[in-house]
């Protein structure tokens, strides 16, 4: 049995989590009391097990308090990215069916216009603005004791859909006890990464992402201490590792790149020898970057490949990776099947679509068609990634789902950007895709077919980029726009995007 409520009894004054910048901390006793009060408030508001809340805020103490309150009251909880537009935020709140929404003053501008009498109950931490109820005041008035019907809740996080709209991945409600942890996370964090009650876990990423939220909660589940960075800074990460004698962390390849770009004297300035495990995923890690990180930190990097869908998982230790460079590991949840266009299994070394068999089932919330497309006739599921297996069963990814762009570990689907640009009066046709970026992995590129080719140039590029920024979150906007007199389409009207994309990517095996 592991749960912060248990450690609140045995180690009440131990720090459960602490903000790296301010130094403000919450002990296990305080977390237990605050999450109990949050759970009591949810029940007082009429929420029952299986209902839904959503919250939008920066990395801060209240973030984890609210997540744990939902977890111990059997609620689905959706953390929303701060970098989405108002329309995207409104869509997620509506789509997930949130009955309560909680935000912070720093995020008020994004949600101020969403407060309506027929929507969810809107709360704000700290000093609430007009129209928002006070989370601190109302939760603070509740008993600090557990609710009578504690049951485990689940996160329901959103990934982009094929049309660019975010899609929620919803786990079936099982009514498990609150101290029953996610078994895969327990294996990855505890068994493979050595996380335990003595661990100091450093979290450098936004908590609304699946991995940071889940790994922080697992660190606390196991009785460790989480140090949460308000935002990532390469040198500050190293400083914090030394200051707190950090033992584990979870990162994305972009963070590795930024740390490796620090001057050598800065990298050598900090003692990182306490690190025992560095988990990474979210985007492909360039082979040379990973090799340099292993040279620097030692064989402590652990890579995994999985989607928010949870339909299968591979894991690759540093030792395994050094023997199978470029691999994302072998399956630890489900069995990997590589299928060709005819749905037949491909031989070893042959490229095809990656499926998982004998793996957990999943569904996309309110999207049965997308759910159906993820499964084949045998019930095997895919995220649309392409790759191959070697003779030892190690998976190598060669492409990503439908030209999805992965920039700094964030998934970006081009369709939504294309849908915005095509509405501009000067645009006749458009293609959006990812192109190489040394630091971020990929960046968003647009190729536009203008109605009048004589208008193509810097001025039109700037107008179109401004147009995108007015309608999309910044990360979905092109970093650059090129112009072509005609985009490659088949006679049936299908855009052959790879013909454009190939111009910007070095050929495999090229020097």
Give a topology summary.
Elements: H1 4-10, E1 15-19, E2 25-27, H2 28-44, E3 52-56, H3 61-71, E4 76-79, H4 86-96, E5 100-103, H5 108-111, E6 121-124, E7 133-134, H6 135-140, E8 154-155, E9 158-160, E10 166-168, H7 183-192, E11 200-203, H8 210-221, E12 225-228, H9 234-244, E13 248-251, H10 253-260, H11 264-269, E14 277-280, H12 287-297, E15 301-305, E16 313-317, H13 318-323, E17 330-333, E18 335-339, E19 352-357, H14 368-373, E20 381-389, E21 395-399, E22 405-407, E23 410-412, H15 414-421, E24 427-437, E25 441-450, H16 458-471, E26 480-483, H17 497-501
Parallel strand pairs: 1-12, 3-4, 3-5, 4-8, 5-6, 6-7, 11-12, 11-13, 13-14, 14-15, 25-26
Antiparallel strand pairs: 1-2, 9-10, 15-16, 16-17, 18-19, 19-20, 20-21, 22-23, 24-25
Helix pairs in contact: 1-2, 2-3, 10-12
């Amino acid at each position: 049995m592991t749960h912060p409520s248990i450690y609140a009894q045995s180690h009440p004054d131990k720090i459960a989590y602490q903000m790296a910048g301010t130094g403000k901390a919450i002990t296990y006793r305080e977390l237990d009391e605050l999450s109990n009060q949050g759970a009591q408030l949810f029940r007082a508001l009429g929420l029952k097990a299986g209902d839904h809340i959503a919250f939008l805020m920066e990395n801060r103490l209240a973030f984890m308090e609210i997540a744990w309150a939902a977890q111990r009251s059997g609620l689905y909880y959706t953390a929303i990215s701060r970098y989405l537009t108002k329309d995207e935020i409104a869509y997620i709140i509506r789509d997930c069916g949130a009955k309560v929404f909680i935000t912070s003053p720093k995020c008020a501008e994004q949600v101020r216009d969403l407060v309506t009498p027929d929507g969810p109950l809107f709360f704000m931490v700290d000093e609430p603005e007009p129209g928002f109820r006070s989370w601190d005041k109302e939760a603070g008035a509740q008993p600090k004791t557990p609710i009578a019907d504690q049951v485990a809740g689940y996160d329901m996080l959103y990934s982009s859909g094929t049309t660019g709209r975010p899609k929620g991945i919803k786990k079936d409600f099982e009514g498990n006890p609150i101290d029953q942890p996610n078994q895969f996370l327990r294996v990855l964090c505890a068994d493979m990464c050595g996380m335990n009650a003595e661990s100091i876990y450093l979290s450098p990423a936004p908590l609304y992402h699946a991995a940071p939220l889940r790994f922080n909660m697992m660190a606390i589940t196991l009785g460790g201490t989480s140090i949460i960075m308000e935002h990532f800074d390469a040198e500050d990460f190293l400083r914090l590792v030394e200051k707190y004698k950090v033992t584990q962390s979870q990162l994305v390849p972009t963070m590795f790149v930024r740390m490796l770009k620090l001057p050598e004297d800065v990298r050598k300035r900090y003692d990182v020898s306490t690190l025992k495990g560095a988990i990474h995923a979210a985007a492909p890690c360039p082979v040379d970057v990973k090799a340099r990180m292993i040279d620097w930190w030692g064989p402590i990097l652990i890579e995994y490949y999985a989607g928010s869908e949870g339909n299968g998982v591979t894991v690759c230790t540093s030792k395994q990776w050094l023997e199978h460079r470029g691999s994302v590991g072998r399956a630890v949840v489900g069995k990997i099947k590589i299928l060709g266009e005819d749905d037949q299994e491909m031989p070893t070394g042959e490229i095809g679509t990656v499926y998982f068999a004998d793996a957990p089932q999943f569904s996309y919330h309110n999207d049965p068609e997308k759910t159906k497309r993820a499964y084949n006739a045998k019930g095997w599921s895919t995220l649309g990634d392409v790759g191959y297996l070697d003779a030892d069963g190690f998976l190598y990814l060669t492409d990503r789902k439908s030209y999805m762009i992965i920039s700094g570990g964030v998934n970006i689907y081009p369709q939504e950007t294309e849908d915005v640009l095509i509405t501009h009066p000067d645009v006749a046709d458009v293609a959006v895709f990812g192109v190489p970026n040394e630091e971020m992995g990929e960046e968003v590129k647009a190729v536009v077919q203008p109605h009048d080719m004589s208008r193509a140039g810097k001025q039109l590029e700037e107008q179109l980029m401004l147009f995108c920024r007015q309608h999309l979150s910044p990360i979905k906007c092109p970093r650059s726009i090129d112009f072509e007199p005609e985009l490659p389409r088949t006679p049936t009207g299908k855009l052959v995007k790879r013909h454009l994309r190939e111009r910007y990517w070095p050929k495999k095996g090229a020097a």
